[in-house]
Write a structure and sequence with these properties.
Blueprint (H helix, E strand, L loop, with lengths): L2 H5 L29 H14 L5 E4 L6 H11 L7 E5 L8 H6 E2 L11 E2 L1 H4 L4 E5 L6 H13 L1 E2 L8 E2 L3 E6 L3 H7 L4 H7 L2 E4 L10 H15 L6 E2 L1 H9 L5 H15 L4 E2 L2 H5 L6 H5 L1 H23 L4 H8 L3 H10 L14
Parallel strand pairs: 1-8, 1-9, 2-5, 5-8, 10-11
Antiparallel strand pairs: 3-4, 6-7
Helix pairs in contact: 2-3, 9-11, 14-15, 15-16
This protein binds adenosine-5'-triphosphate and magnesium ion.
GO molecular function, one term: ATP binding
Keywords: ATP-binding, Nucleotide-binding, Transcription, Transcription regulation
Protein name: Sigma-54 interacting transcriptional regulator
């Protein structure tokens, strides 16, 4: 197999049901799985972006696949034999941000006993993945912008300038334009980063990927724990298709992982089915009462998600907008497993 083919992203033909073990067959070398139209468009765009060298801004909710997509761009590109260097911008203290990006010479700080290279040097010839770029301290934003202007940088404590051709891929789960408006992100840096944009749709917007991903994670975790292959109970399948997945693919993976550990039989009945029932079997649908209850539940869940998005996760503001008491709204959020701090849910149950 040539390296292009080895790294190519695969997707399952639309006709397959996907909940079976065939999911593993749809896995590519770097593990991106899907078959929805939205996934196909994502894969096409990743392929196009990989043929270029420009900065990329990857946008999407938490756990949606921003890092795995950035890795796919790198490994599909000419840079694949050079390093892919991830940096979590949210984890760098402001005082160390320049040293982290550009490195430092020996003695640059009291405890800098040896020289250390920064991520920009480490990613030379390859790709620097700036995760959570929205959380990059202001000082880091200034330094990064300066580097992006002419690709020159200076390690802390060194007078000579160096050059790096590292490709920059930045990821954010909050639209940078909102942060620019709020005055916490530099607009000039946003424009530098946002040359090619890759927006990864939430899992609930590409539901036909759920069976494939669930089947894949099921196979992976059964194999990891030396268990014989298992299948999903019909109620589990229904639950998986109806849950809102605020934590996206990462949350789906955790749900399957946990249930593989807990389930003794050959058929996995998710714990979540009991904690948050949302079955829509034919039997359930035929009852008017049940169909009405399901429609209300679907409405309430999407209403709440949209409300919290509008208020950026503030439950008090959401309660005011919805003309509901905060406590009542809190109960509803809990019912649907929607987290109250960020507007995203924790795991149900
Ligand atoms: N299409 C996919 N196929 C298979 N696995 C996937 C896919 N998308 C995401 N994953 C898996 O889901 C998990 C989360 O993905 P990733 O870390 O790329 O998300 P993220 O958007 O960077 O999350 P965060 O916002 O929390 O940083 C990883 O374990 C990843 O391998
Ligand atoms: Mg990430």
């Amino acid at each position: 197999m040539d390296s292009e083919a080895e790294h190519s992203l695969q997707s399952q033909p639309a006709g397959e049901t996907g909940f079976g073990g065939s999911a593993a067959l749809a896995m590519s070398r770097h593990g991106m799985i899907g078959r929805s139209d939205a996934f196909q468009r994502l894969v096409d765009r990743i392929g196009k972006i990989a043929r270029t060298d420009a900065c990329v801004l990857v946008e999407g909710e938490t756990g949606v696949g921003k890092e795995i997509s950035a890795r796919a761009i790198h490994y599909l590109s000419e840079r694949r034999s050079k390093p892919f260097v991830p940096l979590n911008c949210g984890a760098i203290p402001e005082a160390l941000v320049e040293a982290e990006l550009f490195g430092h010479v020996r003695g640059a700080y009291t405890d800098a006993k040896t020289a250390r290279s920064g991520v920009i040097a480490q990613a030379r010839g390859g790709t620097l993945f700036l995760d959570e770029v929205d959380a990059l301290p202001w000082k880091g934003q200034v330094a990064l912008l300066r580097f992006l202007q002419d690709r020159h940088y200076r390690p802390v404590g060194q007078s000579a300038e160096l050059v790096s051709d590292a490709r920059i891929i930045a990821a954010t789960n909050r639209p940078l334009s909102e942060l620019v408006e709020a005055g916490t992100f530099r607009s000039d840096l946003m424009y530098r980063l946002d040359i090619l944009r890759l927006t990864i749709p939430a899992l609930r917007e590409r539901k036909s990927d759920i069976p494939l991903l669930a089947g894949h994670f099921l196979a992976v975790y059964c194999a990891r724990y030396g268990q014989k292959p298992k299948s999903l109970h019909p109620a589990s399948r229904s639950w998986l298709m109806h849950y809102a997945w605020p934590g996206n693919v990462r949350q789906l993976e955790s749900v399957i992982h946990r249930n593989v550990l807990l389930c003794d039989g050959d058929e996995v009945l998710l714990d979540e089915c009991a904690a948050q029932p949302c079955a829509d079997t034919a039997r359930d649908r035929t009852s008017f009462q049940r169909a009405k209850a399901l429609a209300i539940a679907e409405f309430e869940r999407s209403y709440l998600l949209q409300l919290l998005e509008e208020t950026r996760g503030s439950v008090s503001a959401a309660a005011r907008l919805a003309c509901k008491e905060r406590r009542t709204l809190g109960k509803l959020l809990k019912k649907y497993g929607i987290g109250q701090r960020t507007g995203t849910a924790g795991l149900p149950g």
